[in-house]
Specification:
The complex is a heterotrimer. Chain A is of the alpha+beta class. Chain A has 21 helices and 33 strands. The longest helix of chain A has 28 residues, at 572-599. By secondary structure, chain B is of the alpha+beta class. Chain B has two domains: 5-80, Ubiquitin-like (UB roll) (Roll), CATH 3.10.20.30; 89-163, DNA polymerase, domain 1 (Orthogonal Bundle), CATH 1.10.150. The longest helix of chain B is centred in the C-terminal third of the chain and has 21 residues, at 143-163. The N and C termini of chain B lie far apart (55 Å). The chains are: A alpha+beta, B alpha+beta, C alpha+beta. Chains A and B meet through helix 3 and helix 19 of A and helix 1, helix 3, helix 4, helix 5 and helix 6 of B. The complex binds flavin-adenine dinucleotide (FAD) and FE2/S2 (inorganic) cluster (FES) (2 copies). Chain A: Its cofactor is Cu(+); Mo-molybdopterin cytosine dinucleotide.
Chain lengths: 809, 164, 284
């Protein structure tokens, strides 16, 4: 038998299990143009829907006249709020416990808001119809600044006012003002204030983490098809959480959940943009019910940037206190969060500011307090986690800036300040002041490795020389060294504290082994480029001893996949990956009994070895998993049911806490404000590494999105609430030309509570990258008196910093 | 509505004839009329390159060309570069070097790269980055795309030499 | 993003083009590469009921280098410019500038004629052509006329070209001396934050002529005669460059946009021009 001549190493290699850089199984179709994205779907008689959108940021709607539009050949229907109202669908619940207009109900609250939905035989007729819908608006005062909103008499959300102008509680408790949404806090207020009041040193800083957008290359869209004969609704779409969408559609439409099938086909990137539910989905479903035909709705890029799912928009004020030696004693953070016209943040219900309370970062800070105020303004709704776990980019940016600001105050090296405050290896599991229990970490080792690799001392010496040269007029370029050490919190999450709209945030895997020793596994998650079909098969291969190449992974079809909460916040590996391992272990447990029976020994006398069970102490006696699979189906084994299947629903006991150490070296042209990234080193510790090739790819991608956000990418509004960055000319997506080569590195500190020790990596580079790029810019100006300037550091803002520091002579 | 036009295209070696409104954009002709869904739509404003095809030897963003303008021309899309049994070296290289993640930019990226390598069979990293700057990728950070193109260049040059 | 419906024409000669223009007046427009026009039509910011595609009109795609001048047909693309060794030998600034326009795909389609006729202050070729003292040849039903690039631009999207005229060629006196096209932009595919074209000659270390034009710093390209004059007769010392920059700053009138406020643009314009002058001088 071939098996007998294969060495153990050969057998391990043959599995292509965890730890190897298995090539991706998805790539064959993608490289041949045979992906199947939602806009590729074409059904018989399919109609197209598109929106009439508001040109104003705040206006009352006096009238809508659809007559001329209905005259356009090919236009079949124009839906308005009045049409949806009888169905109770003119408003819909948001993920944050608020509600949002599906179509403008009497007023609009942001530019681009959906006003009417034109349904036509083709996209040309729909476009012509949109031009002819006449809407009469009465402009209202526009508020684009949350601080002004909290002072203004103008009521943005009249629907939330009580009798006689009273202010009923919102979804997250009492509201302070009619444009206020919630106050949420964590930690100990008075003790923190006391520590700070009595500290040796206190650094204070206000910073604005600007509004931006995930902007995946594929926009959002769907195809809704109501089969009236069978009473079944099928909804294909760009959904990062298909099961949650099914539940939400069922709840708001009244269609029973078993009659709804939601399918996420291939998704062209998500980054948080595709978590929420959008008016386009609801309108497509209604239009399909009304017309009896399939209806497709696909956003264009301007719709996407202006209306679906912004990220960040956090105004943060921090105070950090320390001893003279630099030991941090307390941290205070206040956030004014601009949520736009509706609160549509995609956060777990109990966390209206996401996991912002990870803002003590990687440091042992004994006392801390965080308070967040959510505010309505005339901007688009959203507040999604753009390539990060809920608000973690904001938290990490905050603490990594505060550390730098403190270092300046203490006149200390920022790398050293970090080192003396890191949580020590022996302190894990570590209870942080704002509530989280960090699972594992070895920050000092990672930091030392990073600084040594980049020759940190050498860089600082070079920088000092550069400052001399600059002052002597020999150069006009400054050099910045950006540091960041981040701790992510991913894998939401334990059902005891994580749910969205009451849906627990567990995830799932169902495995079916075929008699010939191949398998199919279905999960509640959905890949948007992360390569799940590749990596989940690797986890299983290692767990059940069948080659990854013989395992199909299927996700995204709610009729076949087990329930799960989807893919975002780097939760797939920590949660669904764990479910996969656990389901695999159930398979293995049954296989062990079968093997023991076949080998005629007691269950406890066989042990698992790579791809087989062997008799303990007699490795020549074994049954391969392939043989066991065949026997499971085809041999009557007393006391054991036929078949080899397992399901696991995994409710994680805790989050996982990946971390990393990044260093960026940048040259800055003081006269033009143009930055040049000379070097970027990224060390990631994501626990057990399932596929190093894919990890590296995720790091490159996350860093590039971080570069974009730090150096120019923003959603900006003028005072009238006009979005100024609605196309890719102004919304900064770097090309290959603007992006450097990255150096990647790693350490491995497995998660102690995760079945395979994996922590998740997709979002770490973004979370750690943004402060690293930003710190590099800021560090270049530190010798000239800079403490903090806001992102995005585009040319003119860098120039402005130089100008304000008097560097233009 | 305006008069429909009679349009003739050669797409991936196949003659196609149809009547279309002049305002029909080539990307929709390919995707919706001819069911050639490899080229994608990422921006519609000629910035992202997801819709890139080759027309009479030029890399073109097909969202910014009317089908009427392409009347009489030869078009190659990702589907015309290679199939399951005869992958183009670039298709192989992107798979081998993890040059894609969500795959949405990939057809445009590879189609553009064929032209780049035709014009410059031995590009430096800098030349690749400059020559691919009309194609945006949101997932990969480009590093592995550059690597894939370099690898394909080596492979293509080797097989050209072997053939000579 | 679907444009309004239109009629499409693809005439085989200029007479055919002019006949349609005459018939439909304002309602007709010519299209070259379409890479400025089509995006505007898709956003419904330009409505063109009658669209005349110039691609089949003969005689518009030649590059001719003569003894004292260069003639570039209106339909010559930016890619053609980059690829033409003859042109690069005769006027290397053209290639240097073309490489800084848009991206490879756009450069295959975007034409010289479209770029200079468009009238968008963001286009790079108009300033370049002013620097080179080019002449645009326009043809209409009344015949042909020549307009100097330096007199062509009136305001954003307003030029000396009548609606019924077609631009057929750009003639450039053979340039000599040093050159530079310097452009600052936010990324590839972006229009200029500021750009400068400079062409300089010298004799024995003294500047004998200098032409300077700036892009995207006013609602038209700016040919700054004073900025050039400030250099002539000097040894291009720091003081001369300073006064050239000061003269240029007098002539431009930038507006605030997403690239930055006016003060920033002026400052960058000065820096960019200085660099362009220094580079051109080093090549003179
Ligand atoms: C993503 C992107 C980035 C770009 N970046 C830059 C850049 O950095 N710098 C830059 O300069 N340009 C840039 N462009 C514009 C590009 O170079 C255009 O292609 C060019 O400006 C117009 O050329 P065209 O042949 O496409 O003209 P068209 O779009 O066909 O026409 C433009 C206008 O000129 C008129 N026109 C065209 N030809 C003639 C003629 N022969 N006679 C009379 N009128 C005529 C048309 O009627 C129309 O009004 C960019 C374009 C895109 C899509
Ligand atoms: S869709 Fe054509 S360039 Fe983006
Ligand atoms: S692989 Fe997703 S956009 Fe390139």
């Amino acid at each position: 038998m071939k098996d007998e001549v294969d060495t153990r190493e050969d057998r391990v290699a043959n599995l292509k299990g965890m730890g190897c850089s298995r090539k991706r199984v998805e790539d064959a179709r993608f490289t041949q143009g045979k992906g199947n994205y939602v806009d590729d779907i074409k059904l018989d008689g399919m109609l197209f829907g598109d929106f009439v959108r508001s040109p104003y940021a705040h206006a009352r709607i006096k009238s809508i006249d659809t007559a001329a539009a209905l005259e356009v050949p090919g236009v079949l229907a124009v839906l308005t709020a009045a049409d949806l109202e009888p169905l109770g669908l003119h408003w819909m619940p948001t993920l944050a416990g608020d509600k949002q207009m599906v179509l403008a109900d009497g007023k609009v609250l942001f530019q681009g808001q959906e006003v009417a939905f034109v349904v036509a035989e083709d996209r040309y007729a729909a476009a012509d119809g949109i031009e002819l819908v006449e809407v009469e608006y009465e402009e209202l005062p526009v508020i684009v600044n949350p601080f002004e909103a909290l002072k203004s008499d103008v009521v943005l959300r009249e629907d939330l006012m009580g009798e006689g102008g009273s202010l009923p509680d919102g979804a997250h408790g009492p509201r302070k003002h009619h444009n206020h949404i919630f106050t949420w806090d964590a930690g100990d207020k008075e003790p923190t204030e006391e520590v700070i009041a009595n500290a040796d040193v206190v650094a204070t800083e206000s910073m604005y983490y600007h509004r931006t957008h995930p902007c995946p290359l594929e926009t959002c869209g769907c195809v809704a098809s109501m089969d009236k004969v069978n009473g079944k609704l099928t909804l294909w779409g760009t959904f990062q959480a298909p099961h949650a969408i099914r539940t939400v559609v069922s709840l708001i439409s009244g269609i029973e959940e078993h009659n709804i099938r939601v399918v996420s086909p291939d998704i062209g990137g998500g980054f948080g943009n595709k978590v929420g539910a959008y008016p386009g989905y609801v309108c497509s479903v209604v239009a399909s019910i009304v017309t009896g035909k399939p209806v497709k709705w696909i956003e264009d890029r301007m719709d996407n940037l202006m209306t679906t799912a912004f990220a960040r928009d956090y105004h943060m004020t921090g105070k950090i206190s320390a001893t003279k030696e630099g030991k941090i004693t307390g941290l205070h953070c206040h956030v004014t969060a601009d949520h736009g016209g509706f609160d549509a943040c995609a956060d777990p219900t109990k966390f209206p500011a996401g996991f912002m309370n990870i803002c003590t970062g990687s440091y042992d800070i004994p006392t801390a307090y965080l308070e967040v105020d959510g505010v309505y303004t005339n901007k688009a709704p959203g507040g999604v986690s753009y390539r990060c776990s809920f608000r973690v980019t904001e938290a990490v940016y905050f603490i990594e800036r505060m550390i730098e600001v403190l270092a300046i105050k203490l006149d200390m090296d920022a790398a050293e300040l970090r080192r003396i405050n890191f949580i020590k290896k022996e302190q894990f599991p570590y209870q942080a002041a704002l509530g989280w229990e960090y699972d594992s970490g070895d920050y000092h080792t990672a930091w030392d490795k990073a600084l040594k690799t980049v020759d940190y001392d050498g860089l600082r010496a070079e920088q000092a020389q550069r400052v001399e040269d600059f002052k002597a007029g020999k150069t006009r370029k400054l050099m910045g060294i950006g540091l960041s050490f981040f701790t992510e919190i991913v894998g939401a999450g334990p059902v005891k504290n994580c749910d969205i709209l009451g849906l627990g945030m567990f995830d799932s895997c169902e495995i079916r082994i075929h008699p010939t020793g191949s398998a199919i596994a279905r999960l509640g998650t959905i890949s948007q480029g992360q390569g799940h079909a590749t990596t989940f098969a690797q986890i299983l291969a290692s767990e059940i001893g069948l080659p990854a190449d013989s395992i199909t992974i299927e996700e995204g079809d709610t009729d076949t996949a087990p329930y799960g909460l989807g893919t975002y916040g780097s939760r797939s590996t920590p949660v669904a990956g764990a479910a996969t391992a656990m389901a695999g272990r159930k398979i293995r447990a049954k296989a062990q009994m079968i093997a023991a029976y076949l080998l005629e020994v007691h269950d406890n006398d066989v042990e698992f070895d790579v791809d087989r069970f062997v008799v303990k102490g007699a490795p020549e006696k074994f049954k391969t998993m392939k043989e066991i699979a065949f026997a499971a189906y085809n041999q009557a084994i007393p006391g054991i049911e036929p078949g080899l299947e397992a399901v696991s629903y995994y409710d994680p006991p805790n989050m996982t806490y990946p971390f990393g150490a990044y260093v960026c070296v940048m040259d800055i042209d003081v006269d033009t404000g143009v930055p040049e990234i000379r070097r970027f080193y990224a060390l990631d510790d994501c626990g057990t590494r399932i596929n190093p090739m894919i990890i590296e790819g995720q790091v490159h991608g996350g860093l590039t999105e971080a570069l974009a956000v730090a150096l120019g990418q923003e959603i900006a509004y003028d005072d009238m609430g006009n979005c100024k960055t609605g196309t890719l000319m102004d919304f900064f997506l770097p090309t290959a030309w603007e992006v450097p080569n990255y150096e990647t590195d790693y350490t491995v500190t497995p998660s102690p509570h995760h079945p395979i020790g994996a922590k998740g990596v997709g979002e770490s580079p973004h979370v750690g990258g943004v402060p690293c790029f930003s710190n590099a810019v800021q560090d270049a100006f530190r010798p000239f008196g800079n403490t903090h300037t806001n992102m995005p550091h585009d040319h003119w803002r860098i120039w402005k910093t130089a100008n304000e520091l008097g560097l233009h002579g | 509505m305006s008069n429909k036009m009679h349009i003739k295209l050669n797409v991936n070696g196949k003659e196609e004839e149809f009547l279309a409104e002049p305002r029909e954009l080539l990307i929709y002709t390919l995707r919706e009329r001819l069911n050639i869904t490899g080229p994608h739509i990422g921006c519609e404003t000629s910035h992202c390159g997801a819709c890139t095809v080759t027309i009479d030897g030029k890399s073109v963003k097909s969202c910014t060309m009317f089908a009427a303008q392409a009347d009489g021309k030869s078009i190659t899309t990702i589907e015309g570069l290679g199939g399951p049994d005869n992958l183009h070296p670039l298709q192989e290289a992107f798979k081998e070097h993890h040059g894609l993640q969500c795959g949405y930019c990939t057809p445009g990226m590879i189609t553009r790269a064929t032209k780049l390598l035709e014009e410059n069979p031995n590009p430096t990293e800098e030349e690749i980055r400059f020559g691919m700057a009309g194609n945006i990728c949101r997932c990969t950070g480009y590093q592995n795309i550059v690597k894939s193109i370099q690898a394909a260049a080596v492979e293509m040059n080797a097989s050209k030499e072997a053939a000579e | 993003m679907i444009p309004a419906a239109f009629e499409y024409y693809r005439p085989q000669d200029m007479a055919g083009v002019l006949a349609i223009l005459e018939e439909h007046g304002d309602d007709a427009r010519v299209m070259a590469g379409g890479h400025s026009l089509i995006p505007m039509m898709k956003l419904r910011m330009a409505e063109v009921p009658h669209l005349i595609d110039l691609q089949d009109v003969g005689g518009l795609s030649d590059i001719t280098v003569e003894a004292s001048r260069i003639v570039i047909g209106a339909m010559v693309t930016q890619a053609d410019i980059i690829d033409s060794a003859e042109l690069t030998a005769a006027a290397p600034i053209l290639r240097e500038a073309a490489l800084q326009i848009a991206d490879p795909q756009v450069r295959y389609m975007g034409t010289v004629g479209g770029n200079v006729a468009n009238g968008d202050p963001g286009n790079d070729m108009p300033g370049l052509m002013q620097c080179l003292d080019a002449t645009f040849t326009l043809v209409g039903s009344d015949g042909e006329r020549d307009v100097p690039a330096r007199d062509f631009y009136e305001a954003a999207y307003m030029t000396a070209r009548d609606d019924e005229e077609v631009l057929t060629a750009v003639s450039i006196p053979l340039p000599s001396g040093g050159y530079a096209y310097e452009k600052q932009k936010r990324k590839i595919g972006d229009y200029a934050t500021a750009a400068a074209s400079v062409q300089i000659t010298q004799s024995g270390g003294t500047c004998t002529s200098a032409a300077i034009a700036m892009t995207n710093l006013s609602d038209t390209p700016i040919f700054s005669e004073a900025a050039g004059a400030a250099l002539v007769g000097t040894a291009l010392d720091d003081a001369a460059i300073k006064s050239s920059v000061a003269a240029m700053l007098n002539d431009i009138d930038p507006t605030e946009d997403n690239r930055g406020p006016i003060a920033f643009k002026k400052h960058v314009a000065g820096v960019i021009l200085r660099r362009a002058i220094e580079r051109a001088w080093s090549r003179a």
